[in-house]
């Protein structure tokens, strides 16, 4: 299980098995989506399987999540999402009504995100050989700018922004699983962020890197990027937005909110001079939360992620070893 | 289970749920791959999940099958397969060695088929919530011709060809599952057919429709095409190639070889005048079996598939209702 949690073990599995096997110039970039060129046009391809339980949770469901996840992965490559595929692995005995609700939710999410689901597949496996339903989506997007949105484009002095408060998706799921009740229900942050990304690009912001804060949360993402860029990322705990109810739920379950997956949040790396303009574009294209700056890129001998905590002390923010939250997406 | 077998129930599930929900001009064509246009260039997108058991079988494995399936689906739209994604849903406890063998096999199959696996995803589910491993592949291909390769392009008088003998893949799997032993092992026909399709197109053959004979076998494919084209397809049992060992295995298990899935076989619809040239191109690009003609398209009041049997009598070849062979691909 630990190999799927987005932490160090998954990182090793991908690094030691998949990358060497499928080694080619395109997959070496290790990004959420791969970029390729056809007839002089840059396109992006990405895929994700969604195995989250429960199928329906406050703020979303497996169907909308499967659309948001792939739309967002394309956006993280700076691509405008266009076409999606949808493949269902259904466990024998899944009520037709459940499938119908998920399919309807996917269609609504696709429509809202401005993408079309154009091809699909259905497989049915024996009872006990699946878990209700798994959904895979793959997506194709078009890249209409000349930026190289990659960890390798990050420079010392770049600002690190996030588009909103962290951890709502993971804690919405965990609260249901653990039967936690709060005064208000924590709703997942699952949402498409391609609109905000397209707005940044259309405003001509010099975006260096984008990454959505999914499996492994902020901590994994920052560590992966620090390693890929060969730079140190310094973030300030006091600047990282986490809602009080999410923080409380994390405390009860002994979880670190910086490790918890989001599905509608992403990190943005831009040069210092672009910060104000980027934040203003993000704020104009974000609902229900407030984009902000959380840190700065620096150059140090050994690339790492440094966290300045509440009392001002600095510590290394290391990747989680195994799974902290399995099957959250 | 029956809804996944490629027969009438699956046909209804797709027709009644997925098509209405995802209705758009692109998905209405109901083909193995969907065709779209970006910057004046026609491209194809397809997806397939592979859940076959056992993971390793004579002539192939889940990994190579996952590559062949998607490569072939792109080829059936007349697209040259270029880029694939690969997504793994791994059940907790799968031996790393098993995963490694599958990944290596995928890479070999991709290399042989001339495609690159450029992006991927890994999810791990709890023991008992999966079945070893499921693999999803999606693929993008490029269309470099102006033909409309669709059931709707078929005309009365067209010849129906197949690129080789039927049923080997399904019976290779069933023989392992049922513990059948024959003098020689039946090996799966799993193979990429994109090379043969590209050769047909490069030779300028006026191809009207292509369809691979996977789930539901020849019978389902012919019925789907007859319905979509609004025409009757007449095939002659004496012309349909089925090897003796496959026929014997089918008889033992009470199966109809025309319902059994292949993974390296496809049907080709071409005008009568193109038959000889098409067969000669196919033969030059096919290994280990012999392409041939099996029937003709005719125009009748009610579209259907007619089979002339061994003694010359004609009967309707109807789609199987449920699953004849579950989890064969």
Plain-language structure description:
The model of chain A has no long low-confidence stretch (mean pLDDT 91). Chain A is α+β, with helices and mostly antiparallel strands and 329 residues long. Chain A is 30% helix and 26% strand. Chain A contains eight helices and 14 strands. Chain A has helices at 8-21, 62-76, 96-113, 168-178, 194-202, 217-229, 244-253, 275-284, and strands spanning 34-38, 41-50, 56-57, 60-61, 80-91, 116-125, 133-143, 159-162, 209-212, 232-236, 266-270, 292-298, 305-308, 314-316. The first copy, chain A, has two domains: 31-143, PurM-like, N-terminal domain (60s Ribosomal Protein L30, Chain: A), CATH 3.30.1330; 151-316, Phosphoribosyl-aminoimidazole Synthetase, Chain A, domain 2, CATH 3.90.650.10.
User: How far is it from the N-terminal to the C-terminal residue of chain A, by CA?
Assistant: 14 Å
Order of helices and strands of chain A: HEEEEHEHEEEHHEHEHEHEEE
CATH topology term of the largest domain in chain A = Phosphoribosyl-aminoimidazole Synthetase, Chain A, domain 2
As a percent range, the share of helical residues of chain A equals 25-40%
For this entry, what is the oligomeric state of its chains?
homodimer
Q: Which structural category fits the helices and strands of chain A?
A: alpha+beta
Question: What would the principal axes of the Cα set say about the shape of chain A?
Answer: globular
- Name the strands of the widest sheet of chain A in spatial order: 9-11-8-12-10-13-14
CATH domain class name of the largest domain in chain A = Alpha Beta
Total beta-strand segments of chain A: 14
* CATH homology superfamily name of the largest domain in chain A: PurM-like C-terminal domain
- Poorly predicted sequence stretches spanning 5 or more consecutive residues of chain A: none
- Please name the two chains that share the biggest interface, counting residues whose Cβ lies under 8 Å from a Cβ on the partner chain: A-B, 70 and 70 residues
Largest sheet of chain A: 7 strands, mixed
**Secondary structure tally, helices of chain A:** 8
* Percent of residues in beta strands of chain A: 25-35%
